[in-house]
Amino acid sequence: MHPDSPRQANALLHKAVPLMRKMDIAPTPYNYGIWYEYVRQTSPKLNQLVDSTIGKLGSLPSFMSKELFHQFLVAEEARYNNEHKDKLEELVNSISSNTYSMSESLQELESVVAKSRRVLSRADRHKHLEKVVRFLDQGTKKALSDAEHFSNTLNRVNEEVQQLKAELDEIKNNVDLDPLTQLFNQKGLERQLYSLIPGSEDDLSLLILDIDHLKDINIKHGRRAGTALICHIGRILLNKKLENATLARLSGGTFAIVLHEATLDYAIEYAEIIRSHLNKQRLKNRSGQGIIEKICVSVGVATIIGQESPTNLIARASGYLDNAKRQGRNRTASR
Q1: Which residues lie below 8 Å from residue 36, measured CB to CB, with a gap of 6+?
Q2: Which of 217, 182, 214, 189 is nearest to 297 (CA)?
Q3: Which of 58, 131, 256, 290 is the most buried (most CB within 10 A)?
Q4: For the segment 66-122, what is each residue's pLDDT rounded down to a tens digit?
Q5: Are 242 and 306 in the same domain?
Q6: Where does the record place the GGDEF domain (predicted)?
């Protein structure tokens, strides 16, 4: 969605709605969003997919509109970050009632025009001409008023979407944060370790946790399910986070947990608590059906040796993670 002037929004509105009505497409927020972008012609790939789908099916199903809406109109970070996701849903819902109102207004205008034509088809149409003109004038004014209100709503939503995107850009520009989960990224993790290592002895531990078979999950359920799983685990780790812990997402489905003042035995115990807790979780879709019945992860645990460098500590924990994978996955390894 893009910020358009009221005149531009009205022009696009008058292009989008007739197309939707022609193909009997329900005026839902997702459908409207797709067709508004379609007539803007700023996303060739979107238009190509819409044209291709209509060519095959004769229309654009609602479920397809929702998929395209999330793919082309919404940044991935906004889809899966809870705060931004809730804001997005609020914006989508805010245009819903206005969309239906606009559709009803157009139907009323069509009814006015049809009735006027029937009156004018009579032999004494000149007698009724003044009444018909007044009737048409009233119906047109109401439709224009509704269109203006709808346009204003659309512009307000567009402004809020732009603000949402600016917030996401700010997150992306923070070189220490992962934009998807808002945990530290690898660079942020390394900065944290550099600040913690000088004051530690043998009580700083690093857990490297990786989702088992993430590639297979992406193939079986789609990359969106894989991304949702990554965010789901990120939220669980935050909820189970210890007071003296630092969390990071390194890449893909790989996370890191730094435990301050934690011996190796304590870190292994905590890793097993996290792994066992994740095993009991399941990923569900919006209808409440399970997509992934059991979440399995492998964990490598390393405790700092002397004044070990952050790079070496990460490498050791990653090596132990590889050992956990080789030993059969869904387990913790510390050597």
Answers
A1: 1, 12, 13, 16, 154
A2: 214
A3: 256
A4: 778 777 776 554 444 555 555 555 656 555 555 555 555 656 656 666 666 666 666
A5: yes
A6: 202-335
